[in-house]
Amino acid sequence: MEYIIYFIIAIGATTAGAMTGMGGGVIIKPVLDVLNQYDVATIGMLSCITVFAMAIVSVMKQIQQKVKISVKTALPLSIGSVMGGNIGQVILTAIIARLGNNQIVLVVQNILLALLIIAVFFYMLYKNKIKTLGLSGIIPSLVAGTFLGFISSFLGIGGGPINVALLIFLFSFGTKTATVYSIVTILFAQISKLFSVAFSTGFAVYNLSMLLPMVVGAILGGFIGSWLNKKLSEKTVEICFNGVQVLVFTICIFNIVKNII
Fold first, then answer.
1. Tell me: the pLDDT tens digits for 123-173?
2. Nearest CA among 108, 77, 89 for reference residue 47
3. Ramachandran angles phi, psi of 202, nearest 5°
4. Quick one: DSSP state of residue 137?
5. Tens digit of pLDDT for each residue in 207-238?
6. What is the mean pLDDT of the chain?
7. Which residue in 68, 71, 84, 195 has its CB near the most CB atoms, within 10 A?
8. Of 180, 162, 79, residue with least CA distance to 124
9. Can you say how many angstroms the Cα of residue 149 is from the centroid of all Cα atoms in its chain?
10. Minimal CA–CA distance to 92: which of 155, 29, 21?
11. Maximum Cα–Cα distance for the chain, whole Å?
């Protein structure tokens, strides 16, 4: 039964993540916090590997569908996300070791995620009234990738709504285009985190007993989400994006209240 629950969480989260560009970890992380069966570090690792599997499938699917991706933008975004992912993982590990209290870290992560979601929700709601910057080039892409990789790794969410919103604001992308670049950024951020763990603590310190059903769910979710992103209109993808944000915000508030009271 437990395997089925984790499979459903993974396939639901990664389908929504691949479709909207959120990546899935933004749903997986707070939901696993609610279940409270693992510590913060293990939840982050389960989320990371699950999202990594989804991102591989999703990027391959986008390439297969011949979606246009600018290498000049995607490459520095990816390099930046690798650097940011490493920094985020190092800082998170240091904070957990310093505090020695998973509950405090969990509350801080959920508060930061909730604040980010509020900001992104209102930006997406009024984005047609907000002038985008229309940036291009290596430096802006590198800086954006570093920031997104850091947030992804530090919060253990494997991407999230901030990816899409920031890419729209900085580079004047449409929502569906931003979704594709977001997934590419998420993929490399997770690669960075996995390498960082492999060459530091290793994976033996984590309880990964639920990894198999989650990875299977992620692979299926990557296929389904990419297909939906291709088929659905820009407006529908935006509605789904905002709907997922409301869901995640609600879960974050629940986690904060549960761990404070």
1. 988 988 999 999 888 999 999 999 988 888 888 776 667 888 999 999 999
2. 89
3. 80, 175
4. S
5. 999 999 999 999 999 999 989 988 899 889 88
6. 88
7. 84
8. 162
9. 9
10. 155
11. 51
**Angle formed by the axes of helices 25-35 and 2-20, to 10°?**
150
Of 146, 175, 178, which is closest to residue 81 (Cα–Cα)? Answer: 146
State the amino acid at position 94 in one-letter form: A
Long-range contacts of 232-235 (CB under 8 A, 24+ apart): 232/19, 234/174, 234/175, 234/176
Handedness of CA 237, 159, 96, 43 (dihedral sign): positive
Domain ranges in the chain?
2-260
Crossing angle for the helix pair 71-99 and 175-198, to the nearest 10 degrees:
50
Q: Which amino acid is at 168?
A: I
Both structure tokens of 157: 């969410």
d(CA 130, CA 123): 8
